[in-house]
Write a structure and sequence with these properties.
The protein is an all-alpha fold and about 100 residues long. The protein has one domain. The chain has helices at about 1-10, 15-45, 50-90. α1 runs antiparallel to α2 (about 15-45) and α2 packs antiparallel against α3 (about 50-90). The protein is elongated, with a radius of gyration of 20 Å. About 0% of the residues are buried.
């Protein structure tokens, strides 16, 4: 993800760079959340106190992490819809 963002940084400028960076950040956070989901799966149901503490910690971190992911997805979706609407309005409406 970092390599991808470094490539985008060289080719995009301004608001387009911010938009693409938000998309990359969303994918990175979602990947971290999924990796924690694997840890959560393997830590569930064991009798060991260490694994139950790990399971509880992973659940808490995922609960915290889901909010920034949701906010990023919402921002990117609204930004994309507004951008598409502006593009469509420029194509459909005649310029006087």
């Amino acid at each position: 993800m970092i390599y991808q963002w470094m490539g985008y940084r060289k080719t995009y400028r301004g608001l387009t760079l911010v938009f693409v960076s938000l998309i990359v950040a969303g994918f990175a956070l979602a990947s971290i959340w999924l990796a924690l989901n694997v840890v959560r799966y393997y830590a569930y149901g064991h009798e060991s106190d260490n694994l139950s503490v790990l399971y509880t910690s992973v659940v808490r971190v995922q609960g915290i992490l889901i909010w920034p992911i949701g906010v990023l997805v919402l921002i990117v979706c609204v930004w994309a819809i507004v951008g598409f609407a502006r593009w469509l309005a420029a194509r459909v409406l005649p310029v006087h």
